[in-house]
Every structure is written in structure tokens, then in C-alpha cells.
Design a protein that fits this description.
single chain, binds copper (II) ion, Alpha-Beta Plaits, alpha+beta, 4-stranded antiparallel β-sheet
């Protein structure tokens, strides 16, 4: 009985952990207009200002931004809007 309760509690705990992790999303945006080395920091800052964004990596050569965010606080639309307002229109990369 005790073991069974423990097993159930463990199963429930791992389910909860999975639920919490599911709120974090990683997306890759294709970013236009990045032409020199000072562009990526600008794109990065614009994305970091979006509430819920926890990590941003911008790659000038690939013209992409990889963004980690809490999908309860931010969404892809807000990310695209942020880079676009900074002068770098973006869209979800395939
Ligand atoms: Cu530039």
C-alpha cells in the first residue's frame, strides 16, 4: 500500500514537471535586414524586452534568432512585432 502510494505520488510529480516544462517554447525566427555586426545585438535587445522571453541567440550568417520564451507570457506574434518595430521584420523559420 505504501509503495503503491509512493508510485502514484512519483507519477503525479513527473506529470506536473512535464506540464511546467511545456510552458517553455523555443522558436527560430528568420530575420530580415541584418546586414552588419551591430544588427544582431539590436535584434537581441528587442526580443529580450518582450515579457516572458528568457533566452535569445542571434546568428548573423544564418539570419536567424532562436528565442526561448514562456508561452503563458509571450507568443510568436509578440516576438515578430518586437523585431519588426526595431527595423528587422521576421517570420517563423521552417
Ligand atoms: Cu547592422
Amino acid at each position: 500500500m505504501n509503495l503503491r502510494t509512493l508510485a502514484l505520488a512519483t507519477a503525479f510529480a513527473s506529470l506536473s514537471a512535464t506540464g511546467a516544462a511545456a510552458a517553455e517554447r523555443t522558436v527560430t525566427l528568420k530575420v530580415d535586414n541584418m546586414t552588419c555586426a551591430t544588427c544582431p545585438p539590436t535584434v537581441k535587445k528587442s526580443l529580450q524586452r518582450v515579457q516572458g522571453v528568457t533566452k535569445v541567440e542571434v546568428d548573423l550568417d544564418k539570419e536567424i534568432a532562436v528565442v526561448v520564451f514562456d508561452d503563458a507570457k509571450a507568443d510568436i506574434k509578440a516576438l515578430i512585432k518586437a523585431t519588426t518595430n526595431a527595423g528587422y521584420p521576421s517570420r517563423l523559420a521552417q
